[in-house]
Amino acid sequence: MEEELKQIVASAEQSLAGVSSMPQFEAVKASIVGPNGSFTGVRKNLGKLPKEERPAAGKLINEAKDKIDALLLSTMEAIRRAELAARVGPAVDVTLPAPAAATGSRHLIMQIREELCAIMHRAGFAVAEGPEVETEFYCFDALNTPPEHPARAEQDTYYLPESAVFGNVSRKGAERYLLRTHTSTVQIREMLKTKEPPVRIVSPGRCYRRDTTDATHSASFHQIECLAVDEGVSVKDLKAILDYVFKSLLGKESKVRFRPHFFPYTEPSFEVDFYSGHLPKVGKEWVEIGGCGMVDPNVFTSVGYDPEKWSGYAFGFGLERIAMILSGVDDIRYFYQNDVRFLSQFA
Amino acid sequence: MKLSLSWLNKYVDLSSKSVDEIAKALVQIGFEVEGVETHGLAKFEHVVVGEVLQRDQHPNADRLGVCRVDVGDGTIRQIVCGASNYVVGDRVPVALVGAVLPGGFEIKKSALRGVDSEGMMCSARELGMGEDHSGLLILTERPELGTPINDVFPGADTVYDIEVTPNRPDCLSYVGMARELAAYFDLSMNYPDIVTEMELEKAPSLVGELRVDVPDTCPHYRGYSIRGVKIAPSPDWLASALKSVGLRPINNVVDVTNYVLMELGQPLHAFDAAKIRGGKIVVRNAEAGEKITTLDGKERALDASMMVIADAERPLVVAGVMGSVDAEVDDSTVDIFLESAYFVPVSVRFTARKLGLSTDSSYRFERGVDPQGQEFAAMRAIDLILEVAGGELAGTPQIAGEPVCLNRQIEFTGDYMRKMLGFDVSDESIEAVLSRLELEVGHFALDEMRSAFRVDVPSFRVDLERPIDLVEEFLRIYGTDKIPSAPVLSNALVGGDDPMAVFSRGAANSLSARGFAECVNYPLRAANDAGLWSATDAEKFALHNPLSAEQSHLRPSVLPGLLDNLLLNQSRGNDFAGLYELGRVFRADKGKLWEFFSVGLLIPAERAHAWRKAEAPDFYTASAIALDLLRIGGVKAEAANLRPLKAPGLWQDGHCAEFANPAFSMRCGLLDLAMTRDLGIKGDVYAVEISFLPATLEKNLSGGVNFKYKALSQQPAATRDIALLVPSAESAAKVGSSLTKAAREATKGAEFELESLRVFDLYEGKGLPEGMKSLAYTLTFRSPLRTLTDAEVNAAFEKTQELVAKAGYSVRA
Fold first, then answer.
1. Interchain proximity A338–B520, CB inside 8 Å
2. Is the distance from CB of B93 to CB of B127 less than 8 angstroms?
């Protein structure tokens, strides 16, 4: 019998190896373990053996059964897998592009905006927004800009008609509406809203100047501005935050320098240059990037903060300029053409 | 402003500083250097006259010569040279070892292709004298061997083009800039000496009467009479000084007034005394309609707001701006009336702007000249006029008003300075730095222990009023590079990001993740374009002073800009899934104008041919995105019920939807086919446009995490399908709500309820009556407590069918 079982297992192995569908499998299975199957026949014969031989024979039969069951199971599993694979067809060409593929992208200026907001966020500054239509008070008066300052001239700043009245741009009095020339307006609105320092905001956004558009000028552009007001804020803190911003943005090798300058809303005022020798596009020169300074006491007075108690700093940059320096884009107008060959380069 | 170094050297000796050091100093103290031009020869060390004694061919290079050169110091040097325009015996400039040529090029002892060379023979360009680089600069005058090259080419000068910020009118002059540099380098100032003495008994003045009618705008006016000048071209020193700063020499007297303007910053005016009619000088406002022909040859109409200097009959000068041809000093002039006055800045600025005329004089008056500087400037000019044009002072000056006295004292403590700076500096160093700027630093006792500074501000520093102004003065001269580096002192966030920023971040991330490209467009649009998108309101958003017709109106929508982008990209053959923009748009409502925050998206139906066709976008592509954007904007899904957009204008009728309330609006669907065709766009365009009032976003997004959890039933659901025959025009939302109502009614009082309702089929056409459609729904019932029996679900379903039939919808078998 031992020989016979060996034979049956060997034959099962052989016939199952040739099976490739469930009907075939069922037929082969029946021929082995079905009512008339070869293995079933051997099992039936067990009872005919002398009693003393039965335990040994039973053991042999059980061993053969385990082998056959395992064979049947693995064959069935293989067939099922093959059937599933057949449903999805032959291997796909993974190198073909997806039919309607498109690379989504954020605009480079917006990416720089987000990056700077994230850098400032780590230093404890929250994003503040303000209206783009502003008034003379928020854009100039509150920022210590005298009535006769040239920036206020109709030659340089867009105004709305006298008759315009905005439902959601608050005015101080009956001053004229204009398109904001800088994001510093948000400083004023935030300080008035906050009533009492500390204030730490970063305000990115669009600004407008009555400029003819050329490779480096645009009538509408983006700025980002930061303001910190607290007790004991000093020039050293201003330098520290700008060092931090440029090291975060451009790498640890970057340096920042201050050149004394004049802005009506800060005193002292500086222009900010950065140096980043490792950036190929920037080279070995100091590059002018923005303005900064300590908030002028008159600005505090105009928002009702006590300039004896509070001090603060503010700084701002043009986002287009940063984008151009970092990416090598050499004409500001490309930012507004929105050619997807341009846009997708920054995806 | 142009600043000639040789002129500057008259007031502060900068000979120990290099051109570059001075440029760096200017930048450091707040004067941006926009250009540095060296005319003639810069100052060189170790560049001398030499003679070529011998020239041999270089053994290893055809184009090089090996010369023996004598520079008169007893040593004959071997110099390798690449030029070919010289012969043995020529004298040329020789840069010896140690010389530094323009561009920082240092001459060292070196070997050129294996042959030693001890210096360099120079071309004109190598010495920075123009562009000639065709060969060595041959010194045909044969100057003495060893003569420093600067002695051969004297008159070298460097001119800096600097930017003077509007708060520093005192620096619109040589003396002012010299004072700044003297402070920075800690050098002493040389002010010009006055030599002419005022002799009181001299003959009376040339002008009988000086009268100022407008003392508010002209608080101080001085007139000096000079008799017997000889008008002639200016001497070389004067003419070339003016030329170096870009002024054209006219004649000796006019040139002196310009020279003093540049030197001291005080504009002066010289009248030909013979042309003053009626023996009178009157400072008054112009009469309306009065005309004057200014020195630039233009006739200008004046009005009553403009100040003039007139004689008995007519205006002769627009005060502080420009003189007229009527009293011009010319070749026939013999007697001069010289004006030195202080005009109030606002008055001059106003007049200059109104006339569209900016002059060296108005530029300085507008910003504020030294209110105490009129007498000194006049005396300085008289010195120079007498020197270059002869004549004599005729009588005492005529004076109206008196110098304006600003008299400012600023008090502060060293602790204040240190607190604002954030780092330690000694009281001594504060005092020393401020004193170098000619501020008079005194002290007073604050209390028994502490003393404070009291600074007297000189009259020319019109910008200094407050302690904080002195912090800047200190830092400028002390050096901003000495601000120590420090860690950022960062506290917890004071508040959250503005909801507009939160929304834009979420919306942009969602749209970019769908493969769309973010665009940024100019928010200013042309009138017709704005009108197209907002016919009734466009004019309300016309700018008062547009620069061009293409950018004359605030945009009512981001879509027109995106359509421009779509067209441009199609015309360039670019393939893209969609374009979007986030930004402000402007709308009118309830008689007021409103600034909205908007997001707009365009999806072109046609894409470039691909190896396999992708599913084309349709209305539901747009509406799904629209609802997603509303969710990001904090609008709850159940509140966002789309409805057909009636009278859609720029949208295709029947293929667009809207959702609006006063705080925001949403439109989505297909753009009007005729419009997109007329724009030249290929294929259909689906679009989404959502605009929020910023306050709405604030309300929607500032609540933090605010959701209510409803417990999940662990029991199995029972579903039933139902198909309803409804009129074709009936909306799915309406049918769905009837069905929901019916199912709720049917399960009233039961231990289970309708959990959800889902449309799974829409059919119209064959087999259905005309004008009808079939909508099929799956109803899901579930109990929180137990498994439902077929019987109870069937009962509820039957009841639902009855109720919905009663509501007017027949149930299909």
1. yes
2. yes
CATH code for residues B209-401 = 3.50.40.10
What's the distance, CA A301 to chain centroid? Answer: 40
pLDDT, tens only, B559-598: 999 999 999 999 999 999 999 999 999 988 888 999 999 9
pLDDT of residue A199: 94
Give the phi and the psi of residue B784 in degrees, each rounded to 5.
-75, -10
What the block records as the tokens of B797 is 């379903």
Taking alpha carbons only, the member of B574, B583, B668, B652 closest to residue B620 is B668
Res. A239: pLDDT tops 90:
yes
Name chain B contacts of A333, Cβ cutoff 8 Å. none
CATH superfamily entry for domain B499-701: Bira Bifunctional Protein; Domain 2 (3.30.930.10)
Q: What is the pLDDT of residues B26-40, one digit of tens each?
A: 999 999 999 998 877
List Cβ neighbours of B757 (8 Å cut-off, separation of 6 or more): B736, B739, B740, B743, B777, B778, B779, B780
Looking at domain B2-40+158-185, which CATH architecture does it have?
2-Layer Sandwich (3.30)
Structure tokens that stand for A148 in this block = 């006769």
Q: Which residue has the tokens 């309607």?
A: A100
Note the pLDDT of residue B130: 66
Q: Are B532 and B563 in contact (CB under 8 A)?
A: no
Closest C-alpha among B315, B269, B321, B320 to residue B292: B315
| CATH 3.30.56.10 in chain B, residue ranges | 2-40+158-185, 411-482
Residue B211: enclosing H or E segment and its boundaries? Answer: strand B209-212
Domain B411-482: give its CATH code: 3.30.56.10
Determine, for residues B544 and A122 on separate chains, whether the beta-carbon distance falls below 8 Å: no
- CB B202 within 8 Å of CB B394: yes
Whole-number Å distance between alpha carbons of B385 and B387: 5
> Mean pLDDT over all residues of chain A?
92
For A303, the 3-state DSSP assignment is coil
The dihedral region occupied by B769, where left means phi > 0, alpha psi between -120 and 50, and beta the remainder, is: beta
Query: Would you state the CATH architecture of domain B47-154?
Result: Beta Barrel (2.40)
In this predicted structure, the answer to whether residue B71 has a pLDDT above a threshold of 70 is yes
Chain A hits for B180, CB-CB cut-off 8 Å, are: none
pLDDT per residue over B242-273, tens digit each? 988 889 999 999 999 999 999 999 999 999 99
- Say whether pLDDT at B472 is over 90: yes
pLDDT at B532 over 70: no
The distance of B548 to chain A (nearest Cα, Å) reads 9
Residues spanned by CATH 2.40.50.140 within chain B? 47-154
Cβ distance of A259 and B612 shorter than 8 Å? no
Please answer yes or no on whether B593 and A341 come within 8 Å at the CB atom. no
Superfamily of domain B718-812: Ferrodoxin-fold anticodon-binding domain (3.30.70.380)
Question: Half-sphere exposure of residue A347, counting CA atoms within 13 Å on the CB side?
Answer: 19
Q: Domain residues of chain A, as ranges?
A: 2-88, 108-346
- CATH for A108-346 is 3.30.930.10
Instruction: Give CA–CA dist A144/B382, Å, rounded.
Output: 41
- Whether the Cβ atoms of residue A225 and residue A184 lie closer than 8 Å to each other: yes
Searching chain A, which residue's CA lies closest to the CA of residue B610? Answer: A99
The torsion region of residue B145 among left (phi > 0), alpha (psi -120 to 50) and beta comes to: beta
| Sequence-distant contacts of A77-81: CB under 8 A, at least 24 apart | A79/A19, A79/A20, A79/A21, A79/A22, A79/A25
Whole-angstrom CA distances from B709 to B600, B701, B705 are 33, 19, 12
Please state, in angstroms and as integers, the Cα–Cα distance from residue B612 to each residue in A222, B608, B616, following that order.
Answer: 41, 11, 12
List the single residue in B498, B515, B595 with the smallest CB-CB distance to A169: B595
Domain limits, CATH 3.30.930.10, in chain B: 499-701
